[in-house]
Write a structure and sequence with these properties.
- With 198 residues, the chain is mostly beta strands.
- 14% of the residues lie in helices and 40% in strands.
- The protein is built from three helices and twelve strands, in the order E-E-E-E-E-H-E-E-E-E-E-E-H-E-H.
- Strands 1-2-5-4-3-6 form a six-stranded antiparallel barrel.
- Strand 4 and strand 5 form a beta hairpin.
- The two termini are 33 Å apart.
């Protein structure tokens, strides 16, 4: 489990394809504190550390992960949002994030608002995922509050700290992002759908 509060902005140092798997080596200040088998969120995707150096570490994404996330589009030098797993007893500053991306979305607009930014995203609503006004959503691993919720899209407001310390500063129209919808909302939606069919 994660909270959606980004700890470091890592840099993709190497990408190695092995059959249908992709090994990603990430340069990060967190590397010296990690251990083999530890879970780390990468743009919202939970991956397991398989190798370490003092300044970098390696994880593996399988085909299922690559097919459903934006990790397949990473290039060497790209910045990636990183968060280690939640410790029991820690403050929950974001919201409960599983690290299981539901689907990708696309940035459809960035609006500057005198010291903050409004980012708008659209997604395929046929997969059954929803947002609600002032509810939680995770974009590339960042816990955010929904504004302007729609059937197939939403917006979020970004403060300067988040802009500078996550890869939001690189988003532009057409950028593909990982989306994880609120876990409580997903269960409520599933129960409502089953009740409607019965």
């Amino acid at each position: 489990m994660f909270t959606g509060i980004i700890e470091d902005l890592g840099v993709v140092e190497a990408l190695e394809q092995e059959n249908t798997n992709l090994h990603l080596t990430i340069k990060s200040k967190l590397a010296s504190e990690l251990k083999i088998d530890q879970s780390v969120s990468h743009n919202g995707v939970c991956l397991t550390v398989i190798d370490l150096t003092p300044s970098s570490y390696t994880v593996t994404a399988i085909k299922e992960t690559l097919d459903k996330t934006n990790l397949i589009g990473l290039e060497i030098g790209d910045h990636i949002n990183l968060e280690r797993g939640l410790k029991l007893g820690d403050r929950l500053d974001g919201h409960m994030v599983q690290g299981h991306v539901d689907q990708v979305g696309t940035c459809i607009g960035v609006e500057t608002q005198n010291g903050s930014w409004i980012y708008s995203f659209e997604y395929d609503s046929s997969l059954g995922n929803i947002t609600i006004e002032k509810g939680s959503v995770t974009v590339n691993g960042v816990s955010l509050t929904v504004v302007n919720s729609k059937d197939h899209g939403f917006s979020v407001a970004i403060i300067p700290y988040t802009y500078e310390h996550t890869n939001f500063h690189s988003f532009k129209k057409g950028t593909v992002v990982n989306l994880e919808f609120d876990v409580i909302g997903k269960y409520v939606s599933r129960l409502h759908t089953k009740a409607s069919l019965s």
